[in-house]
C-alpha cells in the first residue's frame, strides 16, 4: 500500500500539547490499522516541527531507519524523510550532520529525478541555505546560481534563490550586484499577485539605496511603503511594516535626524508588542537600533535598558 508524504519545504506547525496528542494518536492508529512504522514516526515528527527540534530529529531518525529498510533509499517517501531530517538537524545547529544528509539526499535525487525536476531545485536551495547560514558563502552562491540560471525552477524556489543571493551580495557590500537582483525580483512581482513579495522587493530596494547613500530615493520608497502597510494586520505584512519603519529609522539616523529616527523605530517596537509578532531576530534588531538612537541622543539609561532587552533575547 502506498503512503505518499507531503513534501514539506516548510512543515506545518503545531503546539507541543497538540504534538503529544498527535503522537499518541499515531501510535494507536499504527496498532489498529497496521500503518508502517516509518510513517508513524514521520507523522509524529511533523507534529513537533518548529516546536521541539531535538524531538523532531529523534523521530525522523527512527522514520529514516525504518524507511530505508522497508522502502529503499530511492523511494520518494524515503527521500522526503531524509530531506526533513537534514533540515531538522540544521535547526539544531548540527551543521556537519545536516550537510552530510542534505548532500546525500541531493545526490540520490539526481539519480531518481530528471535534472529539471522541482525536487532537485528544492534540495539545492536547502543546501545553499545551510551553507549561507554557516558562513560558507562561496558554495552557497554557486548553488543559488544553479537555480537562477535554470528557467525550469519553480517560482517560489527561484524567488528564494534570487532573494538569498541578493542578501549575500549585501553581506559582502557588493551593492550594485545586489541592486541588479532586486531588478529581477521586481520583474517577478510585476503582476502584483503576491503583495508580500512586492513589499519585500520594495524594502530591499529602499535598504540598498540607504546603504548606497541614495537617501532621497530610499526615503521615497520607505515612506510610501509605511503608509500603505499601516492598516495591515496579516502577520507577514505586519512584519514588513515593522521592517520598513526600522529601515526608515536607520535612514534618519544616518542623516542626523535622531528624533525622527526614534519616532519610527519606537513605532516599530510598539507594533511588535501590540501585534505579538514572534520573530526574535526582528525584535533583537529593533531593540538594538532603538538603543543606538538613545545613545546618539545621550539618553544612556534608556539605551542600556533596550540593549539589555536585546541581549536577553
Q: Would you mind describing this structure in some detail?
A:
It is built from 15 helices and no strands. The longest helix has 20 residues, at 235-254. The N and C termini lie far apart (47 Å). 77% of the residues lie in helices and 0% in strands. It has helices at 16-33, 37-48, 53-70, 76-91, 95-112, 118-134, 137-148, 155-171, 175-188, 195-211, 215-229, 235-254, 258-275, 280-296, 300-312. By secondary structure, the chain is mainly α.
Short account of what is shown:
This protein has 313 residues and is mainly α. Helix content is 77%, strand content 0%.
Topology:
Blueprint: H1 16-33, H2 37-48, H3 53-70, H4 76-91, H5 95-112, H6 118-134, H7 137-148, H8 155-171, H9 175-188, H10 195-211, H11 215-229, H12 235-254, H13 258-275, H14 280-296, H15 300-312
User: Please, how many helices?
Assistant: 15
Distance between the termini: 47 Å
Main sheet attributes: strand count, strand direction, barrel closure: none
Number of strands: 0
Q: How helix-rich are the residues, as a percent range? A: over 70%
Query: What Rg, in angstroms, do the CA atoms define?
Result: 22 Å
The outline comes out as globular
Beta content: under 5%
**Which structural class is indicated by helix and strand composition?**
mainly alpha
Spans of at least 5 consecutive residues whose pLDDT stays below 50 are 1-17
Q: What is the string of helix and strand elements?
A: HHHHHHHHHHHHHHH
Mean pLDDT value: 89
Amino acid at each position: 500500500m502506498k503512503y505518499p508524504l507531503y513534501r514539506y519545504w516548510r512543515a506545518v506547525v503545531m503546539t507541543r500539547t497538540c504534538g503529544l496528542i498527535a503522537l499518541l494518536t499515531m501510535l494507536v492508529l499504527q496498532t489498529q490499522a497496521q500503518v508502517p512504522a516509518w510513517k508513524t514516526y514521520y507523522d509524529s515528527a511533523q507534529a513537533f516541527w518548529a516546536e521541539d527540534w531535538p524531538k523532531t530529529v529523534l523521530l525522523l531518525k527512527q522514520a529514516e531507519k525504518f524507511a530505508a529498510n522497508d522502502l529503499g533509499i530511492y523511494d520518494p517517501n524515503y527521500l522526503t524523510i531524509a530531506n526533513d531530517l537534514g533540515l531538522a538537524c540544521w535547526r539544531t545547529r548540527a551543521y556537519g550532520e545536516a550537510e552530510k544528509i542534505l548532500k546525500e539526499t541531493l545526490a540520490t535525487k539526481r539519480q531518481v529525478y530528471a535534472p529539471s525536476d522541482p525536487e532537485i531545485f528544492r534540495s539545492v536551495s536547502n543546501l545553499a541555505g545551510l551553507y549561507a547560514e554557516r558562513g560558507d558563502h562561496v558554495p552557497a552562491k554557486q548553488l543559488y546560481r544553479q537555480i537562477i540560471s535554470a528557467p525550469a525552477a519553480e517560482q517560489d524556489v527561484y524567488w528564494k534563490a534570487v532573494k538569498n543571493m541578493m542578501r549575500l551580495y549585501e553581506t559582502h557590500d557588493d551593492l550594485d550586484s545586489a541592486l541588479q537582483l532586486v531588478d529581477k525580483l521586481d520583474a517577478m512581482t510585476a503582476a502584483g499577485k503576491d503583495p508580500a513579495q512586492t513589499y519585500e522587493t520594495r524594502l530591499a530596494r529602499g535598504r540598498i539605496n540607504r546603504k548606497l547613500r541614495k537617501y532621497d530615493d530610499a526615503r521615497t520608497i520607505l515612506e510610501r511603503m509605511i503608509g500603505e502597510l499601516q492598516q495591515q494586520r496579516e502577520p507577514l505584512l505586519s512584519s514588513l511594516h515593522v521592517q520598513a519603519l526600522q529601515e526608515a529609522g536607520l535612514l534618519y539616523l544616518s542623516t542626523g535626524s535622531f528624533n525622527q529616527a526614534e519616532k519610527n523605530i519606537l513605532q516599530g517596537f510598539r507594533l511588535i508588542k501590540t501585534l505579538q509578532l514572534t520573530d526574535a531576530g526582528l525584535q533583537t534588531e529593533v531593540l538594538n537600533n532603538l538603543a543606538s538612537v538613545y545613545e546618539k541622543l545621550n539618553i544612556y539609561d534608556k539605551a542600556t535598558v533596550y540593549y539589555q532587552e536585546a541581549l536577553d533575547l
